[in-house]
Amino acid sequence: MVHYPDTPDGQVAYQAQVLAWKTTNPHKYKGGDEYAPYPLTPGTLPVGVGECHTCGLRHPMGTPHLRTIVDTFETNYRRIAGHIIRTSRNEAPAPKPANVQYVAAAPEYLAYLSHYDEEQGNGDGPAV
Ligand SMILES: [Zn+2]
Fold this sequence. Notes:
With 128 residues, the chain is mainly α. It has 4 helices and no strands. It has helices spanning 8-24, 72-91, 99-105, 107-119.
């Protein structure tokens, strides 16, 4: 995926990229992901460099964005790509379990699940 420079030609090429992406991925209504990298707005940073997912530039959290915000498809792609890049960094050299695996294995969660099962179909619950 080419990341075009912030020039008139780059903007035209970027608009064509977005159109092509949306034509190729009609069912990805949230935006780009690891299977369908979304075109990056000209003049923004590449993904996974600690950039703000909303404006595509680097600035301290809570401070104003440094440019107009990117479209939500790109924000979602930056979020997913940044997460994958951070996770793969964390996994080398000592892999850590993902949070979801930790939660699923926690005794509190299993207790919650069994409690939830007990409430199903016993007829004593509040009328629906
Ligand atoms: Zn920002």
